[in-house]
Amino acid sequence: MVTKIQLIDRVDKNKLMEFTENISKEVRLSGTEEEYRAFQYAEQQLKEFGFETSLYKRMAYISHPGETSLRVNGTPYQSITHAMAASTPEEGLHTDLVYVGDGSEGNWADVKGKAVVIDGLAIPGAVKAAEQAGAIAAVFISAEYRHEMIVSTVWGNPSINQVNDYPTIAVLSVNFDDGQKIKEMILNSGETACEIKAVVHKFWGEIPTLIAEYKADEPTDEFVLFSGHIDSWHHGAMDNGTANATMLEIARIIGEQKPTFRRSLRFAFWSGHSHGRYAGSTLYADENWEELHDNCVMHVNIDSVGAKESVVLSEGNAMAETKSVAAKAIKEIAGETYNSSRFGRAGDQSFWGPGVPSLLMGLSEQKPMNTPAMEAFSKLFGDGKGGGFGWWWHTTEDTLDKISPEFLQRDCKIYLSILWDLCTSRLLEVNQLNAIKEINSYLDQYHEAMPNHKGLAETKKRVEGLKELIRQVEDIVKTAENLTDCQAEEYNRWNIRVSKGLVRLNYVNEDEFNHDSALAQPPLPLLAVALKFKSVNSDMARFAIENTLTRNTNKFNFILRGLICSTEEYLGRIKEVKSKVSSI
What we know:
This protein is α/β, with parallel strands linked by helices. The protein is built from 15 helices and 12 strands.
């Protein structure tokens, strides 16, 4: 029988670099022929490894940035525009520039009808704030290089209620040095005129998805989803060529060695990540919602691994309930301690609605440094404790010379170790007690903000009750000897059911069949309105918050009630079994 160590020992850095070079030899904008050739290459490799594949296309709303022109007080500056931003009229925009710092609340006075200059990467929240304040354009001061971004808040393809949610203003970025010159002109002259032209292409087009699956040894519907995007900004050797290479290398090793898995492993390669706000993964979630809800035990995502100087392994994203799986693999392979960071609203994390636990987007990061790039990345990656994926991320400089074969091999081994554990463990490695503890910690903050709200008080009571029930389950099951296969399967199905509720409560604001916008979102988003209560002054605002919280706690508590009932029923059954065994 093939062992985990035997698989890990077969990770070949030369094969990883070969796959990376082939994937990243062309620019892969979503929906283009160049991107499709990369998908065909990946499919060809998977078939050679013995996998049955499904390569198909779906319609998606896609955006490719075009040409730009920026002049400030008559001086031209190099700039780029961004996916999903608005194009200017053909004659361009002629207006004044106003500097608003990093776009924090309170910096938007006197911007109506003008263009704003904002410190940092072009992110949807800042664009939306500028638009709401009446600005007609936004110019972001990026880092040493101009970083490509997508500025829409719409996650995947739009619903009928979202068709008007796309940006209506022009959005440009300049590099850090030029940005400082522009800021100096604004701050010193008082009047700074600009001319802005930007072309952004937006269209409905076909994008590919590639699926392959390694089936479990015994019949089961359970599977682990292992995914990464193929589309890229520029050649994208790191983002996301190395991730695709890692997926192919893991598929090669599994296809050749044919290990025995208890759960199937499903490989998914997406398009529309960079140019459609995760359109590919969102379409897959929408089209396979029930299967994901019923049978997907975890989503493991991979993005931008194996870069040179990527020595930080402690800050990759995880849910509280999935952290231990990555921590174990990182310790085994690299000897490092994994702290993890809570997921933000980013990446191909399109499966929270169906209640699928998530683990990782990126894995390895740069050391934090005092540079414009690192300062910008600290707001996007790893809670600011890591240094992001490298100064070349989302730029023309993301090329093969930025890859370390040794670090890529290390990262591949870590992912392979994680997937082995998830696919072979008898008991599902999702720690629901950690999930409920995390929920309880955030709930304490909301309850403190509104201690007299009856709905929140009931929420607190039910969370504590569920925590105790889960603790009892874990105490019995994890210490039980000689569990039968049926008993282990029953535990796993209970664990999956609990995930469907806790992931939804911890991470989802809208209903589970839609997708929250790509904006910063607080933990337990249904209840976070409680934090606004002390800062409002009017009766209308206070009563509106109380009413909103009452409705949201109704939803929250109803889901908790279902989890409590399921856990009580399951706990009753395993206590009965334990009692019978003890009496023999």
